[in-house]
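Example record used in the benchmark description.
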Amino acid sequence: MIKVLVAEDMHVVRAGLAEILDGQLGIEVAGQAADGPSALEAALRHGPDVAVLDIDLPGLDGIAVAGRLRERLPVCRCLMLTALDRPGLLRRALDAGAAGYLLKTATPGELASAVRTVAAGGRAVDPRLAERSSELGENPLTAREAEVLRLSASGAGAREIAAELFLGVGTVRNRISSAVGKLHARTLVDAVRIAERNGWI
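Model output (structure tokens):
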């Protein structure tokens, strides 16, 4: 029996996923969670074979949860289930230790098949997204440049970002300038748009 944890912040969607998976032969939903911290806690408590994680979880996003589970519960394999079809997010998820990445447009049969594949030690990735990811190329941003852009996207100014990251204002401006140049963007707003569209932030 494959024990599964379902982490999704929308109650109706979470209940639907749990019902679909519980109805599959050889799959049992061992726990559910509505946010990132709860997903981590539930995984550590129930010890599932597979955690089905939404990326946009409140408190701690699904990619961060996958990374922490890789460190704290390596026997639990993570399958991202999301509406976000951005190739950069696929790469970030796989880099964090996720074993699968499926879009919410998947059928119940595709979801169950992905859970079985991941539980058996394989990798399950939406083929169209995998193809687009291979065409995209590598993320040109450093981790710090991505972090500065992510904070800029939330409306933070250079001084706020500097305080948040314990950096000098000049360093923050240099990182913004570097990110804008690497993305061949005209402005900071344009750089944020490009990075978000590709799933790099």
